[in-house]
């Protein structure tokens, strides 16, 4: 006679009743935190590097201006300016930003910002023209995009 009985223990099944709730929660989280790009970039740009960088705080009131060579252009072609999904000239930029300013809520008008994502080889005259057009359109908060560079 043996002193110990060998019982067969069955492992209980895994309860999966809360699994759909968990999957829905994860899906909802990613839908909230994902930032969708609003414009298809039609210019080639490589932003310059900088050391004293800060992040934009309120992105909902930020408009992006892309400056660089057009996608299908040669090396000697002039820089193109893109706002939203269309290429514009400097006078068109002024009227477009004026319309954008007037279409915003009163609270967002005070927080309206423009972020310029310009190619590092863009001539400063183009940037100056853009700044002048934005000043005439009453858009006074301008940011320049750059990549982070380590300090020496």
Summarize this, please?
32% of the residues lie in helices and 21% in strands. With 152 residues, it is an alpha/beta fold. The model has no long low-confidence stretch (mean pLDDT 84).
The main sheet comes to: 6 strands, mixed
Structural class: alpha/beta
Number of strands: 8
Residue runs with pLDDT of under 50 for 5 or more positions: none
Portion in helices: 25-40%
Radius of gyration: 26 Å
Chain-averaged pLDDT = 84
Helix count equals 4
Instruction: Sum up the overall morphology in one term.
Output: elongated
Strand content: 15-25%
Q: What is the straight-line distance between the termini?
A: 81 Å
**Element order: H for helix, E for strand:** HEEEEEHHEHEE
Could you explain how this protein is built, in words?
This protein has 152 residues and is an alpha/beta fold. It is built from four helices and eight strands. The strands form two sheets. Strands 1, 3, 4, 5, 6 and 7 form a six-stranded mixed beta sheet that branches. α2 (90-103) runs parallel beside α4.
């Amino acid at each position: 006679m043996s002193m110990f009985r060998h019982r067969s223990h069955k492992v209980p099944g895994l309860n999966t009743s809360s699994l759909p709730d968990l999957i829905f929660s994860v899906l909802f989280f990613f839908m909230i935190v994902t930032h969708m790009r609003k414009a298809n970039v039609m210019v080639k740009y490589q932003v310059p590097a900088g050391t004293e960088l800060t992040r934009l705080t309120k992105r909902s009131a930020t408009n992006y201006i892309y400056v660089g060579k057009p996608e299908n252009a040669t090396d000697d072609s002039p820089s193109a300016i893109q706002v939203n999904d269309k290429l514009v000239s400097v006078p068109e930029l002024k009227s477009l930003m004026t319309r954008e300013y007037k279409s915003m809520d009163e609270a967002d008008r005070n927080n309206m910002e423009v972020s310029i994502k310009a190619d590092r080889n863009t001539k400063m005259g183009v940037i100056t023209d853009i700044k002048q057009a934005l000043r005439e359109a009453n858009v006074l908060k301008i940011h320049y995009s750059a990549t982070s560079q380590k300090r020496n």
